[in-house]
Specification:
Elements: H1 2-7, E1 11-16, H2 20-33, E2 40-43, E3 47-49, H3 57-62, E4 71-73, H4 74-77, E5 84-87, E6 90-94, E7 99-102, E8 105-114, E9 119-120, H5 137-156, E10 164-168, H6 172-183, H7 187-190, E11 198-204, H8 214-226, E12 229-233, E13 237-241, E14 246-249, E15 254-256, E16 259-262, E17 266-267, H9 270-273, E18 285-286, E19 299-301, E20 306-307, H10 321-340, E21 354-357, E22 363-367, E23 370-373, H11 375-391
Parallel strand pairs: 1-2, 1-8, 2-5, 8-19, 10-11, 10-16, 11-12, 18-20
Antiparallel strand pairs: 3-4, 6-7, 7-8, 9-17, 13-14, 14-15, 21-22, 22-23
Length: about 400
């Protein structure tokens, strides 16, 4: 399979996106083929972002570690002798024509893995796109810097000022961010007179931490209350007015803020939403149990870009890093099987557990039916993060293979 595709100007396997799913697909293609398949990974940035850790705005504000804690060069995570890296923006995906357009250039492929992740979903709420967000490194860094600047302004006012931070979205991202903002020792970053931020988590109409176990939710509420995070529940945001510093809620009330962060959910990027064919939740690409796009043999969607329903339950596989890392090896296996004319393997998702960070040294988690909270759950969270770091490392194949 190797050289012929490249010699003909056709990409052997195009992997779109260098996030958790795309990076792992490329690694697994090399490993499972023992270097005989040479994928081309295409991403607009030369780095992999450890997106699950971007809620750590205290560390971001400190800037002691630099970007290396959150950004992993793709050349470091992949063997450049066995994976071609192409930096560019994917502008169009033509499944019928077996081509992708990258920075205005059309590239044909034999096989495809769409792993373009997700972007913030604003649900048509006016002004929401002007709020801060922590779904990308630069956005999270900008919010961290803005918060420190506000706290310094309040400190310069003699400590009598206050900084009201409003986090919109009661899922894991919003919850982790709200707890982090409320518990960081900001005085070490913004001056001894800096006040503790007043944090409000706007949950909206969906239940707080919807989909998580009752035990985890109960302990999360307890730990947020201890951190003095206020929960504003059962009311959706209808407008975000950054200039006025106010949220409008669907019941006609107003909630004032100094800084607002939008964490209300994600959707597929516009290039994925524009792919011709059926659409799943958030514009994602529906796939069959093998992660293949129906009607397009050899084209797979993985991670946040895929809408996958488990045939045994009908439940949608969540758009999480854990799910993406579980899907990626199976996608690589099926890409190789499809090329070899062999049967494909269906995906079986088994959630290993979930954990939500709830401030410094605190978390709540669920592992094999057991609910953990406090410091033990925080240790589990640290182990999960180490696992994500490990997933970015490439294990070199012996030379000569």
């Amino acid at each position: 399979m190797g050289a012929s595709g490249r010699d003909s100007g056709e990409l052997e396997v195009a992997v779109l996106g260098g996030g958790y799913a795309g990076l792992r697909v490329a690694q697994e293609l090399v490993r499972r083929s023992r270097g005989r398949v040479r994928p081309t990974l295409i991403d607009r940035h030369p780095v992999h972002v450890l997106r699950t850790e971007l809620y750590e705005v205290g560390r971001l504000a400190l800037e002691k570690d630099g970007p290396s804690r959150w950004l992993v060069p793709l050349e470091q995570a992949l063997d450049p002798d066995r994976v071609d890296l192409l930096e560019g923006s994917v502008e169009r995906i033509d499944l019928a024509g077996h081509a992708v357009v990258v920075d205005g250039r059309s590239l044909s492929y034999r096989q495809l893995a769409v792993c373009l992740g997700s972007v913030p979903a604003y649900f048509g709420v006016p002004g929401a796109e002007r709020a801060h967000q922590v779904y990308g490194y630069l956005g999270a860094l900008a919010f961290a810097r803005a918060l420190v600047a506000r706290l310094r302004e309040a400190a310069s006012a003699g400590g009598t000022g206050r900084v009201r931070v409003c986090v919109v979205g009661g899922g894991s991202t919003g919850t982790e961010l709200a707890a982090e903002v409320a518990t960081v020792a900001w005085r070490h970053l913004a001056g001894a007179a800096a006040p503790t931020p007043e944090v409000t988590l706007v949950v909206g109409a969906l239940p707080f931490l919807d989909g998580f176990s009752p035990g985890l939710v109960r302990h999360a509420r307890r730990l947020l209350a201890r951190a003095r995070v206020s929960l504003l529940e059962h009311r959706n945001v209808t407008r975000v007015d950054v200039e006025a510093g106010a949220l409008s809620l669907e019941d006609g009330t107003r909630h004032d803020f100094d800084l607002v962060v939008w964490c209300a959910g994600v959707q597929a990027p516009s290039v994925v939403r524009a792919v011709v064919g059926p659409r799943g939740r958030g514009g994602r690409i529906p796939v069959d149990p093998h992660l293949e796009v129906p009607g397009h043999p050899g084209a797979f969607a993985v991670g946040d870009a895929a809408d996958l329903r488990l045939p045994e339950t009908g439940l949608v596989v969540p758009a999480t890093a854990q799910a993406a890392l579980a899907e990626a090896p199976l996608a690589a296996r099926n890409l190789l099987a499809r090329a070899a004319g062999q049967p494909l393997t269906p995906f079986r998702y088994r959630e290993r557990g979930v954990v939500v960070a709830l401030g410094l040294g605190q978390a709540a988690g669920q592992l094999r039916g057991l609910t953990l909270w406090g410091s033990p759950a925080a240790l589990l969270k640290a182990a999960v993060d180490r696992g994500y770091h490990f997933a970015t490392e490439h294990r070199s194949l012996p030379r000569g293979l």
